[in-house]
Each structure stands twice: as C-alpha cells, then as structure tokens.
Design a protein that fits this description.
Elements (H helix, E strand, L loop, with lengths): L10 H11 L16 E3 L2 E3 L3 E3 L15 H12 L4 E8 L18 H19 L4 E7 L20 H4 L12 H21 L3 E4 L6 H5 L13 H4 L1 H13 L5 E9 L21 H13 L4 E6 L6 H4 L13 H16 L6 E4 L9 H10 L5 E4 L1 H5 L3 H8 L13 H7 L11 H13 L2
Parallel strand pairs: 3-4, 3-10, 4-5, 5-6, 6-7, 7-8, 8-9, 9-10
Antiparallel strand pairs: 1-2
Pfam family, one: Oxidored_FMN
Keywords: Flavoprotein, Oxidoreductase
Protein name: Flavin oxidoreductase/NADH oxidase
C-alpha cells in the first residue's frame, strides 16, 4: 500500500519522497514572492495568500451569519491573507447544502453588510490593508439538504454514485429551471455588491450542480451532450452576473478542471474509460471564460470531497485508504493547474491543495508563483486550524508545525454529521464538544 501518514522532518525529506514516487512538486525557497502585491480588475491584493471558501455550516436559519460565522471571519480578517474567499452562499432555498448554510437575501442584507464591514475594518487595523472579499454563489445540486435531509437536485443520474439505485427522475432539474437559475445567480451577485463584497464566484466545483453539468455528456436537451451545452449554464450565468453588477466587481469562478471520474461521468478525463487527466476541455472552457467573457481571476481545484476526497484534499486519515501516496495527490493538483494555467499568462490563477504539506507548504506556494502557474495561493482547511498562517509565513518566514492542520478530516466529519464545522484538534475549545456530541455519539 502506497499510502502513508505525513512524517517528514525537513523539506529535503519531502523532496526525496517525491523523487522516489516519480512525481514533480514545484518548490522554491524564495518566500518573498508570497509578500508581493498583485492587481486584478482594479483591486489590489496586498500579498499572494488566500483563504479558500470553507463552509462552517453555522449560519442562522434565514441564511444570515451567526455567532460562529462572525468569529471565524474575524479570525480570518486578522490572518494577513490578502484574499478572503467567502464560503458557499446559496442562491435559493432549495440550493442549500444544510439548514445553516449562508444565503444572502434582501431580508438579511444588513447582517452581511455588518460582517463584511467589520472584516475589512479588522484587517485594516491589524494588517494595514483591506482584504479582497469574494462571495461564492452556489447551488448544491445533488448535495442539497435545505431541511437537513437529502433533497438532491441532479443534472443526471450517475451510476458511479447511484450504482443500482438511481435518483427518481423528478429530481433531475429541467432545462426551464436551469434557465431560471441564471437570474438567481445575477440576483445574488447584485446583493453581494450591496453587502460590500468585492467580487462574486459562480461556483463550478466539487460536483455541485454547476460542476456536475460540465460532465453531463449523456443528458438530453440544451444543457447536456455537447461541450457548448454542458457549459451553457456557467457561461450564461457569468454573463448574467457581469450584467448585474458594476465594473468594480470581480466576477470569477472556483472551478473543477478535473473530477477524477472516467468519461462520460467526469470532466477533465481522457475518453478511454480511465481516470487519466485530459485538460483539453478545461483549457477550452478557461479560454472562453477568460478571453471571451473577461474573467481575469479563476480558482482551480479538482476532485469531489464527498466521493473521492483524496483527489482534492490528500489526507492522513479519511473515509477510506486510497491506493496512492498523498504526495501523488499533491503533485496531481499541481500538474493539472500548471497545464491549464500555462496556456493563459495574463490570467491570475488561485491554486489549491496546499494544506497537506503543512509547514513545508510555503515552499510549494512560492514554487507555483515562481513558475508563473499561480498568482495567488489558496489555503482551505489550514485556515480552520491555523487562521494566523498568512502572517506567520509573511512575517516569520515559517509555519509552526504545532499549529498546522494535520489532515485528519475531523472538520469534514462534523460537516457530514450535520454539525458546525471547524478544527477539532487546533480549535478544540469550540469544536471538540461538538465532535463528541454529533460525531462520536452517533
């Protein structure tokens, strides 16, 4: 079995293991690159570090931020990261992944205004700059649970997931409803601008509805089959969002460029029944989004955290033991991002998959920037565990291994159990009791 837990005492040991595995991970010791500023669409990023959208599942029933939501984002505000990518925010009640998922509406707009204002003021006071904050607009699709129980809305039945128990046909979203979603994305974007967000993400990753449509090769109608049809909702929604907001707003997407499933059930794979990555369609989609629709910032990721989580978040402990070494997963993420990003030198790319490397991740971050294959470096679960990570990288030149995420998956276990998500290990005063009650006792 190739899989093993993280045990490296030095970067040289990481490099040696990668060499033994025959995989390539870019490393650079020029950490000063991470402190350089960047301007995209008129917005200045004070450095190259970003906090990826991490759901806390801790909002109010009406979608407004609650106590733990506010606590989390004020911690992020102090982190020193220049980009705060706000967590998945449902565009309509049916799209919520849990009863406490964020959802921005006219009724709770003032709650979001207060939070965004407080986050910006806190970051300015603590770090001397105002962060760029992007809201992730989402439809949870097959993972919708607005009342706390599964209420899937799917693009098509996928035998990899459903096996011999397909979801009923009435849960397959119609073309007419998909057309309606375009305006719902636009409405969410308008509200996001009013709330003080600097940009909006039309979420197309991790097998939520927009992402699932990209692999709807066998779906009939206007949203399935051809590449043009499978990308229709994303393209149209981006255009609707751009028309709905001012030119000051960044319009972007956190998007899957590889699902990790064979065609016709996975995007970004070779058409030979394997799961070998093939970036031809992702490259064409990025070309359209960037060169035709004017998106100058994109956040790339891969895999499905519900079904093959080792692909997008290599781990020490998880729901199964993958038949690959975690460093192979890190290298795959880098390779996919590099292949796509290299085609678009004027595109600012946010990279993913950095947290597994713990204290050695800044060297991969610098390597991705030095190679020109990322402009910003995204950290996800690391921010739950170690919210001050950015300042430690920028000011101390190192991460404290005793504070780093240990890739144990407990934050995800909380989410899957219907609880509120956070770091059980590093933020145990808040989340250990929740873990005992909602995970261990079930």
């Amino acid at each position: 079995m190739k899989h093993e837990k993280f045990h490296y005492a030095s970067l040289d040991e990481v490099k040696q293991k990668a060499a033994e595995l025959g995989v390539s991970i870019p490393f650079s010791d020029n950490l000063k690159l991470l402190g350089e500023s960047l301007t995209v669409d008129g917005h200045e990023f004070a450095n190259r570090l970003a906090i990826q959208p991490m759901e806390g599942c801790d909002g109010k029933s009406n979608g407004a931020p609650d106590e733990l939501t506010i606590r989390r984002y004020l911690r992020f505000a102090k982190s020193g990261a220049a980009l705060l990518w706000f967590e998945a925010t449902a565009i309509t009640p049916e799209a919520r992944a849990n009863p406490r998922q964020a959802m921005l509406t006219e009724e709770n707009l003032d709650d979001f205004k207060r939070l965004i204002s407080d986050v910006k003021e806190t970051c300015q006071r603590e770090n001397g700059f105002t962060p760029v904050i992007i809201m992730q607009a989402t439809h949870s699709g097959r993972y919708s649970k607005p009342e706390g129980k599964p209420a899937p809305i799917i693009a098509y039945n996928n035998p990899i997931f459903e096996k011999d128990n397909p979801i009923s046909a009435d849960r397959i979203i119609t073309d007419d409803r998909l057309k309606e979603l375009e305006e719902l994305y636009a409405k969410s974007a308008r509200l996001a601008e009013l709330a003080g967000f600097d940009g909006v993400d039309v979420k197309a990753c991790h097998r939520y509805l927009m992402s699932e449509l990209l692999s709807a090769y066998n779906r009939p109608g206007e949203y399935g089959g051809s590449f043009e049809n499978r990308t229709r909702l994303l393209r149209n929604s981006v255009q609707a969002v751009k028309a709905a907001v001012s030119s000051n707003m960044i319009v972007t997407s956190r998007m899957n460029i590889y699902d990790g499933f064979p065609r016709p059930y996975g995007f970004g794979a070779k058409d030979d029944g394997s799961v070998t990555p093939d970036m031809a369609e992702p490259i064409e989609l990025v070309r359209i989004l960037h060169e035709e629709l004017g998106l100058n910032l994109l956040d790339f990721t891969i895999g499905n955290p519900y079904f093959n989580p080792h692909v997008n978040r290599p781990y020490d402990m998880g729901p199964y033991v993958p038949n690959e070494h975690p460093l192979e997963g890190v290298a795959r993420m880098c390779a996919c991002i590099t292949e796509v990003a290299s085609k678009f030198p004027k595109l600012s790319v946010v990279s993913s998959g950095n947290s597994y490397l713990r204290q050695f991740s800044p060297y991969m971050a610098a390597g991705m920037i030095e190679s020109g294959h990322a402009a910003l470096i995204g950290y996800g679960r690391e921010a739950f565990a170690y919210p001050e990570f950015a300042n430690d990288i920028l000011k101390k030149g190192a991460l404290d291994p005793k504070k780093c995420c240990i890739a144990c998956g407990k934050c995800t276990e909380l989410m899957r159990a219907g609880s509120k998500a956070g770091c059980v290990v590093r933020d145990g005063a808040v989340y250990m009791d929740l873990y005992k009650k909602d995970v261990l006792k079930k």
